[in-house]
Input
Amino acid sequence: MAYNYQLNLKSLLDSAVSRNPETPIVYRNERYTLSQFRDRVARLAQGLHDVGVREGDVVAVIDWDTMRYMEMYFAVPMMGATLHTVNIRYPPEVIHYTMKHAEDKYVIVRDEFLPLIEKFKDAFSFVKGWIVYSDQGTVKTSLNAHQYADLLSGPRYDFPDLPEDTRATIFYTSGTTGMPKGVWFTHRQLVLHAQSVSMAGRNDPLALTQRDVYLILVPMFHVHAWGMPYVAVTVGSKYVLPGRYDVQNILELIKREGVTYSAMVPTILYMILSHPSVKEYAQYLKGMRVTIGGMALPTGLAMKAKEFGITTVGGYGLSETCPVLTIGVYNYSLKDADEQTKLQCSMSAGTPIPLVQLRVVDESMNDVPADGKTVGEIVVRAPWLTKEYYKDPERTQKLWRGGWLHTGDLAVINKFGYVTIVDRESDSIKSGGEFIPALLLESAISECPGVGEVAVVGVPDQKWGQRPVAFVVRSGQVDEATIRSHLAKLAEQGKIQKWWIPDRFIFVDSMPKTSTHKIDKKELRKMVS
Output
């Protein structure tokens, strides 16, 4: 009988090892070839099995972006268990809620997070076993725990040929109201996602190749670090793990490891480019490519990156979509376009990657015109979208109404097929019956010299329903009059509408951030409510 090939992470990793056994994975002073990494994954899985982990169990991880996390990205799902990537930036009560809701049976904890767990250990009666580790060696703890290092001391695990629809991962995404929602993904979904991302823009000058060196600055607890650990293994690229995020260390890693590619939210890029010692590393930043997601890429930030020789490309996705849906690489329609048009398209959310069906629709589910002006909601279909919110049929039905996944993101689409996000439905500003696209307005403000970070929120207005208020972090000398003059010129040029200009500008030292380093607009609204 013919072999029934399953799209699982074992197949992905074994194929990668056979093609690129010497490709390095780096964390601090640890350097393993892909072949050595595969061996460690097998020994870790045997150790997990020896302490009781079985197929179907949920194994939680509480850690920074380390080699241990990378090993668990493969070992746990490949043995048929489910990897729960715990959001370590949630408040303690929310962390507990997600772990209990996910039905975690085993938990792997880095030493610096142990005091929190030990303080509330009686609340974790549902946990069957604890595994602890430290970069410094053996960990002392009041928990009845196994040492991670001991788990790798035995033989190699013989991984089963799992059915591709076996659940591989689960994590929790926060919304505007209520507790976080669980989303989960199968082996097949992770493999197809990695394949499609690695193929996106294959003939584009911005495309990733085996020669690239990855340093991904998306937390590994957040949507599989945008799937990049699996993509890097698929492509065969060197992968550098940053540990806990520290900008000085990030700059050193870029220099030491010859990093050529990264992915991050705009806030992280802003932190790097505004770091006091960034100019000392300018020669190592030159030529880097960075994919920006999570939030729209502000024009001012893209121009600042360009001054350092960094090429920025927009991308788009969400927790429910594994996450990548679009990337701002060049499609065939742009082959004869001028450089300005190409630049604008690359800075947008981009075009769908292979296998993604994406539409921008009105309230009746009719496609809006591809005129770059008409706003609609993004709805999608792809092989890697979450099938449900875990244990939440009501919100699942709303998510998948009409057979399309509703993103809740408002966007326009241009004649070349490039999507630009203008707002979240939950963040949208409706003034006088018309939408003000907050993300486009933020981008316009960001182009004003002296403006660092910027966020625009809507506040209630008796006459207009809502009006925009802008929060600004200075990167130089700038005042409200200067920004207003800058926006007035853009309005005269037809780039924005005059009535979009905010009623108020509030200067702050820093922006409140979410657990994934995005600007927290809920907190900003509280400041003006």
The longest strand covers residues 451-461. The mean pLDDT is 94. The domain at 432-528 is CATH 3.30.300.30 (GMP Synthetase; Chain A, domain 3). The chain is about 30% helix and 25% strand.
